[in-house]
Design goal:
With 112 residues, the protein is mostly beta strands. It has one domain. It is 0% helix and 71% strand. It is built from no helices and six strands. A hairpin with a 4-residue loop joins strand 3 and strand 4.
Length: 112
């Protein structure tokens, strides 16, 4: 079977959920360079508040979610090759993980 993928939105099937994590972040970053090769390592911890909102199309349900006392961490590693002091090419890896315990939800569900 042959088909062409399409990402055109379909009316009524456009649910969404957006979440924002915000709060202070504390961490450490170390780096070095030997000749033309350089690298950096970073690790940080965050104290987070969570705010999310969305719409569930199957029930015409708008909602908002809030949470406190979340936390997260971030690990980053990159390495680079310097052609000149101001021109380099590199590759990196960044891993972010956020956790949130209980969330409070508020919304107006027409089916309840």
């Amino acid at each position: 079977m042959w088909w062409l993928p399409d990402d055109t939105p379909i009316d009524g099937l456009n649910s969404f959920y957006k979440v924002i994590y915000h709060g202070p972040r504390f961490g450490i970053r170390v780096g070095g360079q030997a000749g033309k090769l350089g690298s950096d390592l970073s690790l940080s911890y965050a104290i987070l508040k969570t705010k999310g909102y969305g719409w569930w199309n199957l029930r015409d349900y708008w909602f908002e979610m809030n949470g406190k006392n979340g936390y997260g961490w971030d690990l980053g590693l990159n390495t680079r090759y310097h052609f000149t002091p101001s021109l380099a090419v590199g590759v990196g890896f960044n891993y972010v993980r956020n956790f949130q315990g209980r969330l409070t939800e508020s919304g107006n569900d027409p089916y309840e």
